[in-house]
Design brief:
Blueprint (H helix, E strand, L loop, with lengths): L1 E2 L1 H13 L4 E8 L5 E8 L8 E3 L2 E5 L1 H6 L4 E5 L2 E5 L7
Parallel strand pairs: 1-6, 2-5
Antiparallel strand pairs: 2-3, 4-5, 6-7
Length: 90
């Protein structure tokens, strides 16, 4: 996963405004539609070791790491946007 400089600024501001210290990425199972990624701001739990991505502390498990390899968090018009990279048909 990559975080652009513009996205980093927005994330850092949102973390400060909401008294959070990390971005959490999780995989949520959604029944017949497969899995979805969930992005939330939160507080680090005792013993957690976040991964710093572009100076943004990120907490995610192995499954989320695999699913976010080609993702980029970007900023457009003052909002965060998740770019999943090139799409393909299977």
């Amino acid at each position: 996963m990559k975080v652009t400089e513009d996205a980093k600024v927005l994330l850092k501001k949102a973390m400060k405004d909401n008294d959070c210290d990390c971005l959490r990425v999780a995989v949520k199972q959604s029944g017949c539609c497969g899995s979805q990624l969930s992005f939330t701001l939160g507080k680090l739990n005792e013993g957690e070791q976040p991964t710093n991505i572009s100076d943004v502390p990120v907490v995610m498990d192995k499954e989320a790491q695999v699913q976010t390899v080609s993702l980029t968090i970007n900023a457009e018009d003052g909002k965060l946007v998740i770019d999943s990279g090139p799409s393909c048909c299977g």
